[in-house]
Design brief:
There is one protein chain. The strands form 6 sheets. A 7-stranded mixed sheet has the order 3-2-1-4-7-6-5. The chain has a 5-stranded antiparallel sheet with strand order 10-20-21-11-22. The chain has 21 helices and 22 strands. It is globular. It is α+β, with helices and mostly antiparallel strands.
Amino acid sequence: MSELFDAVDALLASRATLPPPAERKRLRSAHGLTIDEVAGALKVRRATVSGWESGKTEPRPPERDAYARLLDKLAELYPATPAPTAEIAPAPDAPVPATFTGAPDPSEAPPLSTGPASEAADMTETENTQTPASVAAAPAAVPRPARTTRPTPTSRRGGAKRAAPAGTPAGGTDQRFENGPLAVVDVEDGKVLAYCVGGLVLDVPAKSMPSLVEWTLAEAKLGQPKLSGPGRPADPLLVLTEAALQCYGLPVSFTAEEKDAGRIPEAHKVIKQLVRADWKLTKRGFGPWARIYRPAKGSDRQCVQLCIPSWNALDARFWGHAAQLPPAELARVLGTYAMRVMTPRGSTAVTGLELMTALHPPTHAVRDEETGALRQADTKTPGSLGSAPVDCAPPEAPDGHPVLKALDLPRFHVRGPSEKLFEEAYDWARPMTDAECTLRHLVGIDVNMAFAAGANGLNVGFGEPTHVKAPAFDPKLPGSWLVDLSHVDLSRVKAGKEWLELDGSLLPSPFTPKGDHPEGPAWYATPTVAYAVELGYDVTPLEAWVRYDNGRYLDGWYQRLRDAYLATMADLGVSADLSPEGFLTAMDGYKARDPELGIVVAAIKATVKGGLGKLRERPRGEGWRPGERWRALERPTWRPDIRAAVISRTRINLHRKIVKHAAFTGQYPIAVLSDCVVYAADGPSPMDFLPYRDGKPLPGGFKLGINPGLVKHEGTQSVLWGEGVREQFDAPQLNFARFIKDGTVTAADNGE
């Protein structure tokens, strides 16, 4: 009899009543559920749920009964005509309120100690162990974006062609941008479609490039709210697929000449169409990241940005295989990045620099006392770099900079450390000791978001430098100092009030990128000189270029990128509250859990390094000759002194941990490359040499975790591998940190 009942139940389930496809999607969205969450609960693919919501397919038993039950429950909670609510969900792309209290200056770092310390003492300037509220509140695997129920616009199709996976909420509460920050424009079955974040797909009626721009500004509701009070909203971004390029009369790829120029010629028919419609292009022309605009009239800004992947807009070095993704998946990747970082404005490096400006706009609106109208102020916004470029100090200038003309240097003169500021990341290695050769493994650990952590809490100058002779050193005053640090002996360094005895021959110098001991006066950024004082040595600068107008310009930049990184890693199953063992397990193959979010993580990291690199951008051809100005010098954000200070602090932060680890364990690094350190150990895991006690790390030393400034496992190779490659390439000081990840050594290491 039970078999008959089961058969009857199955027959009823096969005809379970379901609401129309559009209502299914409305109910899911009303409860803030993602397609991935529904698919996971019903144990089907997300494409299957997307098909049910678009009406392409219908569910069959046994999933149909469960799906009907879900929709019935949601219908009880969200009737077809819901009563208006007073509360509106926060925009998912709005800046997160700062809950992180920051970290002390290097001069206020906790003293080194070989004994146990409190948890509070474990907080150094790079160990941000507090989890932002936005990350802590989100589920580790798939965050549930906050959404508002919106009426269906006339341009929206009945159902999305493809539903974007979880992790990319649609637009926020700002109705101007309710469809998100961007759209991927594609052509399917002769129809032009715009794939937005959150699985939304819009019909695009535009038949030409000018009409596409008009439609974007008038109907698409794309864009992003401003990141700062004095700032402005982000312009909408359209990503054009190869099919869309063909549809709008643009080439799918560049010719050799166009590739060299970085743009299509001005005589191209599409550019002529735009000109006839009174649209303009920026100086960089119609290239991979084109901007199409009309001059602003008051607060009315008309501008659309284009991203063209097949023209190499999404460089594979930073965006992986993003350019090859289908439209919906590409919209998810770029949309997640846009809402967590900002709408891309170009390469990850360009976006990193633009994020600094977006958080600290150079000018702000003021109200005219006579007319009452708003206008941009002539003076710069407090805490910003202003709108006018400033020249760097001579020692901060790269070779060929115009400020070096006044020095009247010989034509082929090569400036040394006493003439030029050399603040760069580590590239140091040493031969292994006999004791280290008896161990079995070489284990590399890598500092998470090291340069972002180095920027956090750092004082940098806002304006021009002031030259001072024989100054008294001030660790809180940003600048460049000419000082002799050759008397600092790493064999004997101060930790708080006591002196530690170390083997200085096994340590890299903290004062030079190559780890060599300084031989006389040299130029250093403030964090480097402050560290010499911290180690217990007096310093007497000969001269300095200092900036009295200063502040923590990069704090907001760091916090935005930190939150983006932690939220995305949490989506990939790596949260900030894992135990050391759990963290190592979670990091094993984390990108394979969601390759698209893996792309976002890589892009966030590239935004940090690229943005800092842009602060000292070099000439790019254009017929430049030494002594002449180049284009980047006209930016207020061309600031080599800020770049040098961040790199200095990052290198010092790493050295401080190395010293702490050596003092407590007697272990010394074999190689250091930028933010990667290699140690010899008996076992293959970082847990085999990091001094954890009852799950707690050495205060002030290396700590496993996902927060910026903490470390992860970079890779492990055998000691025999290390000795073998050094012998193979006849390089006793081959930098293992460069190859520790996969062990592949393709050529002799020359440090380049």
